[in-house]
C-alpha cells in the first residue's frame, strides 16, 4: 500500500458485494476512508422484477474484509430508489466521515427484457438506478468537493454502452434484451464526459470506468452466457483507483475500460489489498472493437 489516498474520504455505492466491494477494497488499500453503502446491512433478494432469490454479500462482510487488510471503512444503508434516502446520502456521509473527496457511482441492477416485453416499471427503475441516482449524488457532492478544493467522481459504465459490433449477432446475452440497460450506460458515458467539462475549473475530475468484457458477480452471473470468458474484478478496481490519483487538469473526461486502459498505458495492476502485482492482461480478441484503448 502506498497510502496515495491517505486523508481522503470515498463513497462507493452498491458495495455489499461484487464490483462495488472490490472498488471499496482497492481504495481502502491505498489509504482512503471508505464509506460503503447498500440497501441493507444484510443480504437481500435480487432487485430484478419478481426477484426473490437472496444474493450473497453484505455491508458487514465488506467492512470485515477491508479492516482485515488494515483499511478503514464505515457503512451507511440507503435505498437509492427512495428519493429521500438518495437525496440525504451525501449529507450523511459528510456528517459521518467529515467530508467527501471521492464518489463512485456503482449501484444498480440489470433487468433485461426485450423492448416489446419490458414493463414501464422496469424501464423507470433502470433509468432511476443508472442515470437519476448518479446525477443526484454528483449534484449533492459537488459543493462539498468544491469547498475542499478538489474531488473525483467515477461512474461505472458498461461495454454495452459502446456501439455494438456489426453485423448484429442473432442473439445477445442469455436473457437477451439489454437495449434499455445499454442505453442508460451510454448516457452515463456521455454524462461523465459532459460533467467533466463543467467541473474542470473546480478541479473536480469526472471519469467513467467499465469492464472490457464482463465480470461475474453474485448479481450478474445469471446474465452471462455459459462459456463466456469473464475478466477478474481486480483490473476494474485498479482502473477506478487510477481515476482518483490525478487532478482534473491531468485526467478527466475519460471512458476507460478495465483491460484496455491498464494494458494501453502500461499500468501496474495490484490485488484488492494492494500487496500483490498481478500479471499484465491483454484485452481479448473478442472484445468490442469500438472500445478506445486510451479511454479518450
From TrEMBL:
Transmembrane segments: none annotated. Belongs to the short-chain dehydrogenases/reductases (SDR) family. This is SDR family NAD(P)-dependent oxidoreductase. It comes from Streptomyces antnestii.
